[in-house]
Amino acid sequence: MKTEMYCYMEDRDKLVLPSGVPDYGDAFETWLDPDHTAVLEIDMHRGHVGPEDRLTLCVPRARDRVGAHNRFQAECRKMGIPIIHVQHWQRHGGVDDLNNKKHNRMANWRVLYYLYVEDNELMDEHSWEGTKWLDLITEEEEGDYYIRTKKRLSGFYPTDLEFLLQNLDIHNVVLTGTMTDACVLSTAFDAANRDFRVIVPRDIVGGFSEEAEHGALQVISLHLGLVVDSPALLAEYFARKDMTLPPDLVGITDINDAAGTLARA
Questions:
Q1: What is the pLDDT of residue 118?
Q2: In what helix (H) or strand (E) does residue 137 lie, and over which residues does it extend?
Q3: What gap in Å lies between CA 134 and CA 44, rounded to an integer?
Q4: 6-11+19-90+133-258 topology per CATH
């Protein structure tokens, strides 16, 4: 490795990654190879993180990190790392979930959310095609990719995400977006089960609550991938590309310190 790259075990104990250790071989060297890495940004659309007071399913912790997404992804684009916007995208009218005709109508997440999420009639049309709720709130650039058939929690179901990653020759995926404890966690499991190396910058993802977010990152760090600080990850990537890390990212552990936040409507 080009830097003293570290991760967090159980989302709290900092551990410098070993380099050149016989038991690991080049595992972490290739895990952190920017030339075979893509960023999967999950569900950063208006229904979750828009500026309005009322949304279909608001995730305030992710909304507060829109600026962090924009800054991180802008830096990744400089190095040629692909950005893939993955969205929960349902047919208008709810046949994919709310109004399906199966014996167990509605996806599990929706049934459970009625138990504890504040009553909100807008949730009926969450992620419906043709509504404003699918407008991406994060910045987009020419050359970005899109996955718009996600119907459940995982970015891999039922989508062609794996097909796209294979054709881009991607071995490592950096997961950003919302919710850490639902869609990010589920995507991390599916990515790891497909032998993609998983990286989650803990200062960018946003969960339902601080506690739920921490629990998800604990699981990811123990079983699925590297939980990291995004400035440190960018420092390693920039070093490998023989590029200079922007000065405002040097010496910080939270990219939010160098990025703005989304203004409320």
A1: 85
A2: none
A3: 9
A4: Rossmann fold (3.40.50)
